[in-house]
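Co-fold these.
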Amino acid sequence: MTDPDSAAPKRTPLYDLHVALGARMVPFAGYDMPVQYPTGILTEHQWTRAEAGLFDVSHMGQCFLIGRDHETVARALEALIPADILSLKPGQQRYSQFLNEEGGVLDDIMVTRSAEPEEDGTLMVVVNAGCKDQDFAHLKAHLPAHIKLILAPHRALLALQGPKAALVLARLAPDVATMAFMTAISTVIEGVPVHVSRSGYSGEDGYEISIHEDRVRLLAERLLKESEVKPIGLGARDSLRLEAGLCLYGHELDVSTSPVEAQIQWSIQNRRREEGGFPGFERVKRELAEGPKRKRVGIQPDGRAPARDGTEIYNQAGEKIGVVTSGGFGPTLNGPCAMGYVDAAQAQDGTAISLMVRGTAMPARIVKLPFVPHRFYRG
Amino acid sequence: MGAMKFTKDHEYVRVEGDVATFGITDYAQGQLGDVVFVEVPKVGASLKQGAEAAVVESVKAASEVYAPVSGEVVESNSALEASPATVNEDPEGQGWFGKIRLTNTSELDALMSEADYKAYLSTL
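Predicted complex below.
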């Protein structure tokens, strides 16, 4: 992770807009980012679930991998991640992870095959802000010479999330209306070329829009003119993804966790499970066959007190069985919720556990994820 | 209504006789954002000035609330457990946390007056 204290925080191209909108800015992954706007996290969260929320995610890292053709570039990236990239259709997007040799997660990423026939052999990769320097170094060190890595530091990224996102964005770009979840197109919005994918991290339908940094403010302001759209900060981004049961790097995922432990083995397609050919394959294969020693679960406290990251988890016999990795208050759930890792043998849904909060054992249960059902647009 | 006194950690007390009602200031609730949970002090608990007296949680984080004065908790605002947002809506009124029977009234001398607290806020 980038040490936020090592240098003055960086700013996204929307910094001035956030300040003008009254955002409270906080350091995050080396950037000064809006944690909330004046209406507050609860209102922003509810707005995103009911209308459409606009998020500045320009701090995330964007890059392009370019090879002779799709097969060449897909095979090169597959050497570093466990997803099947070869079978991606033009305009299709997949979630994956950079793994180390021990099968630990270096970062979780989104990979998109360009929809444009003339860009065959191009993959767009979006990585976490806090990991991007290491990720790009990792790519540079491991990609073969015939694959070109092009960093895109001048591309900003907006996320428009919520049940009204499609309605709103289609007013500006009608071709986005029928896109399916996890697909991408290149299009033009307000005269500006953009990459749009139907994806996001709120559990709601929505889009991510990659656009040149010089044009992002105009687009953000244009979207904010729509009555359904309000700006949403990192605070609500976190509570939305927690309710949606989605992993956050540095919490549910780190170099010690494997994708199987994290219960994201759905992102490892069958061909890769059989053929391997990615770092950490031995561990992934073993954990898929025998089950992991620990696994990520949802946790629902019985009471009202939230259990935060780092809270220890105990079974009914008083033995420590795990730890909370993300925890807080779910505004849609209207109650506390958490995710964490527990001993896989004691991870069944409904299992009664205790959370040690400020020295007191608080009763809780292991529950299915997500806490709030996903509402992705499957077409 | 007694005069209010304030701490640098943004707790207030309102003293009537030998009982001090305490809570967090309007500035503090604004900094915290939406309050989603409050752990109020237990009646009968003995609090030391500056020691943890309560916990207030926003969506993002838990914050400790320190006892502005020493004494025994004679009443706590259990209504906050069901409606924590009262701390945002009326922090220095209905959003009080507890009432402490003072053991040492001279502790009040170390706290800020309303004017001093306002001046202190302007430096933050």
